[in-house]
Design a protein that fits this description.
By secondary structure, the chain is α+β, with helices and mostly antiparallel strands. It has two domains: 147 residues, Adenine-n6-DNA-methyltransferase TaqI, Chain A, domain 2; 171 residues, Alpha-Beta Complex (Adenine-n6-DNA-methyltransferase TaqI, Chain A, domain 2), CATH 3.90.220.20. 36% of the residues lie in helices and 22% in strands. Belongs to the type-I restriction system S methylase family.
Amino acid sequence: MQPYSYRDSGIEWLGKIPTHWKVDRLRDQAVINDEALGTNTPVDYEIRYLDISNVNSQGIVDHDEIRPLAFADAPSRARRKVKKFDTVISSVRTNLQAVAHIDFDMENLVASTGFFVCRPKFLALVQPKYLYFFLLTEYSKEYFFSRSIGISYPAIDDYDFGSIHMPVPPIEEQRAIAGFLDEACGKIDAAIQVKREQVAMLDVMAKAILNKAVLEGLNPTVPKQTINNIWFKTLPAHWQLRRLKDVSTMQTGVTLGKDYDGETDERPYLRVANVQDGHLALDDVKTIKLPPNLIRRYELQDGDVLMNEGGDLDKLGRGHVWHNEIPGCLHQNHVFALRCFPHKLLPDYLTLLTSSTHGRAYFEIMGKKTTNLASINSTKVNLFPVPLPPVTEQAEIVQWVQHERGKLKQAQDAVNEQIAVLEAYKKSLVHECVTGKKQVWLKVSSA
């Protein structure tokens, strides 16, 4: 067969397409949210609920996490029916990576309202897997992103969703494109998964390095002592076990919403949102006006270890050392500032300890848990058991852990770069095939 000839599609993003291809609106080639359970559905009618969280960034659906629910217990308006060979795609800007082709049968499968459910109007005109690959293109995601409206829950509506232009090759070419991409993307996804497992393994190694160092020390030959404590069975014989309040002081933060008479100064202050897991997010720091005597009371000092009072359970109590990133900064009452006694406890050692299995176990057990969040009070933070080597040994441990984890981080970065290259190649391949830039049909028909 002869190579494709091309014509201008009339669509800026699409550019030139094979002369014999068509361009049409999505709504003219596919039905969108076509079927739904009625409002008169019995309350005890069992459905299988497909949530946004059930679809990962590679479009893989976690079948085991699709929950059976009574209709009355399903999230509000979760009535959109999903069938085999449908494509589901998130309508919410923050989850646009959630695109999946439903290649399995599941009775009474119903999608979250955060999904659009798409299927071809006529199988003789549009192949289901080709439709999926079109919705997977970066252009589709950018289109949906640019037309999402709303602040807390930005999303695209049905009309705008269906208004996107899609290239429509003859059905035989669609099948060839879908088959080619299925095989190629499957291989790419498999390679990406292997590399993600490598990253996860390096992370496990980093945690093992941390735990061994802060809970056992660097010298495995030192004598051990038996500890009569629920948190530890043994420790190196020359270590002590102290409560956090014995080796530091806690500074609580300013409570918002109060009015003050007289002279006030304006200062920046840290909120829970600024103290993240392993780093500070300082791009949005609020300010507060306080009298000068209170400013001194709530001002952070270099070396303070910041801990959040509340947040996600797995991040509760994790420390981060403050190094005067913002001079004169204060902190809110939901952020604790631990000031270590320099002759007893190093701030960097404390932050390592809070990230260890001991630290995570303590704060997760002691935290007060609600449906989505957890919190811990100052008393329980102050009672945190600290296995305490001499300060010189703490410094050696910190230096060694940082060095070893630094090497692992370099390896992780290298693997993540390989993942990024594979993901970029996959995006490019899908785009080139769906837009006709890569002439898949010629290869298949000449094989």
